[in-house]
Specification:
Helix content: 40-55%
CATH architecture: Orthogonal Bundle
CATH superfamily: Cytochrome P450
Radius of gyration: 25 Å
Structural class: alpha+beta
CATH topology: Cytochrome p450
Strand content: 5-15%
CATH class: Mainly Alpha
Largest sheet: 6 strands, mixed
Strand order of the largest sheet: 1-2-3-9-6-4
Length: about 500
C-alpha cells in the first residue's frame, strides 16, 4: 500500500510539471517501474544481485510479449529478445503468470533447479493447480508424500519390464485403429491419435470401465487441456473457464467410478489383476491411512491428461517429420522390416526383444522430442534465497525452466532447427541438455510408456501405411502445445500388408 501511494503521487507530480510527449514518455517509464516497486524494492540489497531482465507492465509483466511470440511463427523470439538485450546470462527476471519469476535457459541452470529439492519445489500457477488438482503431484503436498505416491503410481507406467504386459494391448489397438483410419477418408490425424493414446492410458488406470465412461472423459479432456496453460480468466468464452467446467465434469465421472470400486471391494474378494484405480484404493501409509476420494481423483486427472497428450502429439510429429525426410523414412522402415523378418515364425506380436532392436527408430523419437519440445517449460518456486551463477533467486519467486532454450541451443545441438536423428549416433546427452520429460525426482513417470507407444505405432505405420496431408502449409499453433491448426487433416493409406 505504501509503495502504491508513492507511485500515484509520483504520477500526479510528474504530469503537473511536464507536458506533451514528455508526459507520455514519463508515464511509460513510471508504468514500467510499478513491478520494480512491487517486487524488487522490498528485497533490499538482494535486488542488486538479481539477474538482468524485463519486469514488464504493471501486474501483467511480459505476458503480452510471451503470447505474441507464441502466436506467431517464431515462438523463440520471446527468449531471443532477452538474450539480445541482456546477453547469454542463462537467467532472466520477469513477471509472468502473475508472479515475479526467474527464467532459466541453460543446461547448468535447468539441471540445478530440477534436481535440487532442498531449495526448489513445484511452483505451478494457482490456476493450473486448480485445474489439475491440489492433491496431485503439482499441488500442495509434501515432498515425502510426493515420493510415496510416485513410487506407487509410477510402477505400472514406467520401466520396460513393467510395460511389457501392456504391449499386446497397445499393439492390438494401433493395428485396428490404423486399419480403421485407412478406410475413413479424410481424418484429423492428431485427434485420432489422441483418442488412441487416451484409450491406452485409460486401460492402464481404469481397465474395467465402460466405453461410455472413456468417451465422456476423452471429450472433456480436450477442453481441459486447452485451459491448463491459458490465462486464468474465468469468464464465458475463455479457455480457462471452459477447462474449469470440464474439470467439474471429470470429477463427477471419476467420483462415480471411485464409489463403484469401493463398493465392489467391499462385496467381492480382491482379484489378482489390478489396475491403477485398485492400487490407489488399496494403498495405506505406515500409519494405516488410506487415500481419500479427492486425492485419488486428483492423481487420476493428472495422469490421464499427461499420459495421452504428449504421446499423441509426438507420434503425429514423428510421422510427419519422417515423411518429410524420405531418406530417414526409408532407413527407419528398413529397420522395422528387418525386425519382422527375424521374428520367430510362430510369433505374432512384438516383445521387448524387438523393441530393443529399434535403434534408429529410438533416435527418431528422441530427435522428435527435442525438436517438438512438447512442454516448453515447467514451474518451480524457490524455498529460500538461492545463488546460481552469481545471481540471486529470491525466496518465493517462481522459476521457469525453459526447455526450448536448451533443446535449440546451437552450442549443444548444431543446426538445432534441423531434424536429424543421426545426431544421436554415439551421443549420450550430458545432464541438463535433453529434458523432454524433465529431470530429477519429478521426472515424468510416464516417459517409458510414451516412447513405447510411439515406437509401436511407428513400427506398424512404417511397414504398411502412408499419410497424405491435405494442408501441408497449415499454420502451427504453439500453445498449449505445438500442433497444426487443422489438427493435421489428411488421409491414411495402406501400402502393404506386413
Amino acid at each position: 500500500m505504501e509503495y502504491g501511494l508513492s507511485w500515484v503521487v509520483g504520477v500526479v507530480v510528474f504530469v503537473g510539471i511536464c507536458g506533451g510527449g514528455v508526459v507520455v514518455a514519463g508515464l511509460k517509464w513510471l508504468l514500467r517501474s510499478v513491478n520494480w516497486w512491487l517486487y524488487e524494492a522490498k528485497l533490499g540489497e538482494k535486488r542488486y544481485s538479481l539477474p538482468p531482465g524485463d519486469m514488464g507492465w504493471p501486474f501483467i509483466g511480459v505476458m503480452w510479449s510471451f503470447l505474441r511470440a507464441f502466436k506467431s511463427d517464431d515462438p523463440d523470439s520471446f527468449i531471443s529478445s532477452f538474450v539480445t538485450r541482456f546477453g547469454r546470462t542463462g537467467l532472466y527476471k520477469a513477471v509472468m503468470f502473475g508472479n515475479p519469476s526467474i527464467i532459466v535457459t541453460t543446461p547448468e541452470t535447468c539441471k540445478r533447479v530440477l534436481t535440487d529439492d532442498e531449495y526448489f519445489k513445484p511452483g505451478w500457477p494457482t490456476s493450473t493447480i486448480e485445474l489439475v488438482g491440489k492433491k496431485s503431484f503439482i499441488g500442495d503436498i509434501t515432498f515425502e508424500e510426493h515420493k510415496r505416491l510416485r513410487k506407487l503410481t509410477a510402477a505400472p507406467v514406467n520401466g520396460h519390464e513393467s510395460l511389457s504386459i501392456y504391449m499386446r494391448y497397445i499393439e492390438e489397438n494401433v493395428k485396428s485403429n490404423l486399419e480403421e483410419w485407412s478406410g475413413m477418408g479424410q481424418i484429423e490425424f492428431l485427434t485420432k491419435l489422441r483418442k488412441l493414446t487416451f484409450r491406452i492410458i485409460t486401460y492402464i488406470f481404469l481397465s474395467a470401465e465402460s466405453e461410455l465412461v472413456i468417451e465422456d472423459m476423452e471429450r472433456e479432456y480436450t477442453a481441459f487441456n486447452y485451459g491448463v496453460r491459458a490465462m486464468a480468466i474465468n469468464l464465458p468464452g475463455f479457455a480457462y473457464h471452459k477447462a474449469l467446467k470440464a474439470r467439474k465434469k471429470l470429477v463427477a465421472i471419476l467420483q462415480s467410478v471411485v464409489q463403484k470400486r469401493r463398493q465392489r471391494r467391499k462385496n467381492d474378494p480382491p482379484t489378482l489383476k489390478k489396475d491403477m484405480m485398485d492400487a490407489l484404493l488399496a494403498v495405506k501409509d505406515e500409519n494405516g491411512r488410506s487415500l481419500d476420494d479427492e486425492e485419488i481423483i486428483d492423481i487420476l486427472i493428472m495422469y490421464l491428461n499427461a499420459g495421452h497428450e504428449s504421446s499423441g502429439h509426438v507420434t503425429m510429429w514423428a510421422t510427419l517429420l519422417l515423411q518429410d525426410h524420405q531418406e530417414m523414412f526409408q532407413r527407419a522402415k528398413a529397420e522395422q522390416e528387418a525386425i519382422v523378418k527375424n521374428m520367430p515364425s510362430t510369433q505374432k506380436w512384438l516383445t521387448l526383444n524387438e523393441y530393443r532392436q529399434m535403434e534408429y527408430l529410438s533416435k527418431v523419437i528422441d530427435e522428435t522430442l527435442r525438436v517438438v519440445s512438447f512442454s516448453l517449460m515447467v514451474f518451480r518456486e524457490a524455498k529460500a534465497d538461492v545463488n546460481i551463477c552469481g545471481y540471486t533467486i529470491p525466496k518465493g519467486w517462481k522459476v521457469l525452466v525453459w526447455f526450448r532454450g536448451v533443446h535449440f541451443d546451437p552450442k549443444i545441438y548444431p543446426d538445432p532447427m534441423v531434424f536429424n536423428p543421426s545426431r544421436w549416433d554415439g551421443l549420450t546427452p550430458k545432464a541438463g541438455t535433453f529434458l523432454p520429460f524433465g529431470a530429477g525426482s519429478r521426472l515424468c513417470p510416464g516417459n517409458d510408456l510414451a516412447k513405447l507407444e510411439i515406437a509401436i505405432f511407428l513400427h506398424h505405420f512404417l511397414l504398411n501405411y502412408e499419410f497424405e496431408r491435405l494442408n501441408p502449409g497449415c499454420p502451427i499453433m504453439h500453445l498449449p502445445h505445438p500442433r497444426p491448426v487443422d489438427n493435421c487433416l489428411g488421409r491414411i493409406r495402406r501400402v502393404s500388408h506386413l
